[in-house]
Design brief:
Elements: H1 2-10, E1 14-19, E2 26-31, E3 37-38, E4 48-49, E5 51-56, E6 64-70
Antiparallel strand pairs: 1-2, 2-5, 3-4, 5-6
Length: 71
């Protein structure tokens, strides 16, 4: 997570930066360039994931709400 956050802040690997319309949190998606997890869950494909989604609390510059591997 720390590496993905650093990459987002430096614009390296940053795919998107959006503001969630329902709560105002900032959402980043970062391409890590390597496997960082697998799609799981009951219907998960077990596909390798190379991106990380980071959600930062509205009005904060670094308070992480959640972060996880994503497609």
């Amino acid at each position: 997570i720390d590496e993905a956050w650093d990459m987002a802040q430096n614009g390296k690997g940053l795919i998107s930066e959006t503001i969630n319309s329902s709560d105002g949190n900032i959402e980043y998606i970062v391409e890590m360039g390597r496997k960082v997890g697998y799609e799981g869950g009951k219907k998960g494909s077990k596909e390798s994931l190379t991106k990380v989604k980071i959600v930062i609390e509205k009005g904060s510059k670094s308070d992480v709400v959640t972060a996880f591997p994503t497609k």
